[in-house]
Structures are given as structure tokens and as C-alpha cells.
Amino acid sequence: MNIDKVLQILLEDCDGDKAENFLRFLSGKLWNLYDEYLMDKIKMAECEIAWNLNIPNAKENQTYNQTVEMPVLSSDKIAGVDIVLESITGLDEETHGLLLSVAPDGKSFSITGTPSLESFRKDGATAQSTFELTLRYVFTGIEMPSDRPVLEKKVPFVINQDPRKLWKDIPVDWDNMSEPKYKKDDTQSEYIKVEALPDGTPQKDIVAASKRGRSHAQEGKPRDDHFKMIHTDNGWYIMAVADGAGSAKFSREGSRIACEESVNYCIVQLNNNKDFENAIAKYDEQKGDSETDVRKIVGDYIYKIVGTAAFKAHKAINAEAALTQNQPKLYATTLLLTICKKFPFGWFLASFWVGDGAICLYDRKAHSAKILGVPDEGEYAGQTRFLTMPEIFKDASSLYQRLRFNIVDDFTALFLMTDGVSDPKFETDANLNNPDKWDALWNDLKENGVELTDDNEASKDQLLGWLDFWSPGNHDDRTIAILYEGEDAITEEKSEADEPNIENSVEDKNNE
Question: For a 10 Å CB count at each end of the chain, is N or C smaller?
Fold first, then answer.
């Protein structure tokens, strides 16, 4: 039966107008039924799609490159039907730093680039991090209805914020701070260039930097760390770093007083102190022999100079507390203090240490790291001891335990640092004694823009920038001081079979 016969039967006994109206009605009805049929097939196909795209989250400021496969339809109900992606929107390079692209066969799409959320940080608000991707696709093997030629699927896409961007840098409101203000800058950096000897031999230089921690900046609190260092006309290097206790209201002033008073006292005591230097030389001559007496003499000098310097700082803090009618514990601070000088026979170093942080004599060539003291904690885990505590100076033995001295042929660097640096870089006290960890720190400095070369005055700014390193969970103030010989000045003459270091705590010396 052909189409003419069908029409003859349908339109029998109908005039022209009636037949035309009937055909129009029938056409519309059938087309609607056909569209419904198509939509039913599409709905069936959509029900068979497993939209498990598993798009990995992107991380802000980290390169992202992902290809995402479209779902595959494998049900017998819709055999021969495939999904073809026509377009995808929701991200763009200018706003998000990411480019969306569809594969030529429409079977996958790619997200590439380095994501950024800066466009969404307005007036200090936390940036949006979840976005909506719109996938526009069609089915092959199914005729698409005229009113829905393209289908859409919304899927979420997450850009995890750079945790550094979540921290605020709120200025300290000094104007509205109660007295005494004890105003302190957010950063401190210094470089001391020591001129070469007349014969051209390079000397060790000192560089130090201190930076307000993110946890302090987040709340608009001042920096509590401090440092002071000097190279005297008679060749002594004197260095001090201090970490004011975060829980102590005026610890920023306590750390300043500790550094200033202890270093200034050492300057006076080491000025033209030939007797002390002669005692050091005599001790070096007798090392390995019966040296108890000369060691005691050197130890007594260390007690009188370095130990008394720490005690003077303790007393100065107490005096400031009394002047302002505050408790000394409100000025609580650690103190790491060293004196150091080059002699014809080698380097002499002495130190005082109370609290956490680290003092280390590091020799890269010998692959050695000598810790000049012990990070001391309080009665309970997580506590530390402070210079302001009376028990630190309750008797001579207590003070002697915190003093050390060494004579070494040479070294790469003398490090002093607060726990804002030592905690993230070493994690445990045991690691402080691991030379590999100090090698890693030395390389970290070099590889991240700190040029520890001879006469490099820019190193103070480089070191300050380095202190901004990221370490999850470690956001305290950071301070580090380094006495070093520039790598460009280090010769290869030093044998790996150097004589071992002479190290003694002053207390051990007096007990023998």
C-alpha cells in the first residue's frame, strides 16, 4: 500500500478544507508523539549515564593538567548510543588561570594551567573556591528532538586555596596600644662585612634576619623575636638571638633587652682582654695533656664574661619590670648568646643557651654539626625555660650547665636561630644532631636565593625573604643569624682528617 492509498482511505468522504485540517491535526499529533518517543529514549540514555567524572581538585598556584574522559554507555537498552561533548564552560584563563578544551572526537575534555583565585579576593574576603562547569553534549545513535538539540550537565570543580593566601597581614595598631608600647618593627635584618686581612685572606661575615610570624600578623600582634650582633675592632664576633614568649605581654621588649644587654656587656669585657686570650692560647697548647687547670681558667673566664652577660640581661629585664610595675614573667624570653674569635691556632667559641631554638657549629666539608648546648624545656612537654626565671641563675652550677666552649680548626657556619626556624627545619631535638639535616638547611638557603658569598651585603634581604618559607603548622616569629665564610672564599686545602673538635661544658670542666 502506497502513501496515496493511505491518504485516500483517511480522507474518504472529506471535502478539501476538512481533509487539510485533519492532516494538520494528525501531523501535529504524530510529531508530538514522536518527540515524546525521542525524549523517552534520551531520558533512558541519561539514566544510564554514570556521571562519575572524578575531576581532581586543583591547588592554587600549582600547575594543573587533567584530561577527563566522558562516560561510556554500555547498557543493552541503548545499544549503539554514545555521548559526544560539544562544549564546556565555567572557567577561563583570565579569571581562573585555567583553560578548558574539548577533544576533537568529543570523548574527553582537558583542564590546564596554573589556577589563581586572586580575582575573587575582594576587600580581604575569603575567595570562592568551588565553581560550576557546564557540559553541553549530544547523543549519537539517537535523533535529538528539535526543542532540545543539545543537553547540559552541571558538575562542580574545586580550586583549593593556597593556604598562604588565607593568612592576613594586619598591621599592629600602635596608636591604640596601651603603655608601655615597646614599639618594634615587623622585620629586622643586618649584614656585617668584615674586611679581608692585609694579605687578602677573606674573613667570615655575619648576616641575620628576623620576621614577624604569620600567626602574629593574622591577629595584628607585634614581632616578639630579636637579635643583635657585632664584630669588634679586636676581632671578636658576638651574636645573640632571643624569642619572646608569645603568652607574655611584653616579651618583645624582654627579647630586645636580652640581646642588647648581653651583647653590650660582652663588648666591654672582651675589649683588650689579653689575659683571657692568653688563657685560650695556653689551653690550646696543652690540649690532650693534663689540662684540668687551664680548662678551669678558661671556664672561669667564660662564666665571668658570657655567663655574667646573660645574668646582666636577666637583671635588666627585672629592672624594667619594676620600673613599669609589671611582673618579670611578662617579659619572658629565651636567649642564645655566642662569642667567637679566630686565633692562629684555630677558632675559639663560647656560648650560653636558655630556652628552645638552636646554636650549631656546622662544617660542610667534614660533614659535622656540633650543637653548642641543649634545647631545654620546662617541667611539662611543650614548655620551655626563659631567661626571666629565677632558677636559671639560682647557683653557679645552674649557670655553668648552660655554658659551652669549643676550639676548632675551621667551620662553614655558626648558626643561631629561634624555634620559628628550628622547629620546621628540624622537627625534633634529635635531628639537631644530624649533619644531614644541616646539609639540607645549607642547601635550602642556597637554592632559595640566599647567596652566602663573601662581602654580599644583599644577603640580609635575601635571608629576610627566605624566612617567608612555607611549613604547615609552623607560623611563629622567625629569626636566624649566620656567621659564615663565603663559599667563593673557601679553599679545598682542608683535609677530611681534621683533628676532632675540643668541646666541653664548663660544668664538666670544673667537675674533673
Answer: N
